[in-house]
Amino acid sequence: MTLILTDKNFKKEIQNTEKPILVDFWSAHCFPCFMLSPILEKIAEEYKDKMIFAKLNIDESPVIAREYQIDRIPVVLLFKEGKPVAGFIGVQSEELIREWLEKNLK
Q: Domain Thioredoxin: where (predicted)?
């Protein structure tokens, strides 16, 4: 299941979880975002016991996008204990994302 984040619920959801949260910052006007989304959703299903997968539309939630200086998309950030600990910009292969997750979920 994908958690939908907004300006209103972002802080509460990010801080009130024991599992890491992988956040996909995207926009409806971003073609690369639509390329990345199915890859992330597939991986998120496989990692559902280790992390929570979330999406934030930067057009609908500009306050959080500005706060985290999201000026290019897609951007993926991994949060632990309410803080971003790792991230990447742009479309990555499924293999690279898995390697990145394994390294950063430890």
A: 1-106
Q: What is the pLDDT of residues 4-23, one digit of tens each?
A: 999 999 999 999 888 999 99
**pLDDT (tens digit per residue) in 43-95:** 999 999 999 999 999 999 999 999 999 999 999 999 999 999 999 999 999 99
CA distance 85 to 82: 9
The reply to whether 80 belongs to the active site is no
User: 30 catalytic, yes or no?
Assistant: yes
Q: Please confirm whether the linkage preceding 84 is cis (ω < 30° from 0).
A: no
Domain containing 68: what range? 2-104
Number of domains into which the chain is organized: 1
DSSP H helices, the chain, are: 10-15, 31-46, 62-67, 94-104
CATH number at residue 57: 3.40.30.10
Q: Which of these is catalytic: 5, 22, 23, 33?
A: 33
Full-model pTM: 0.94
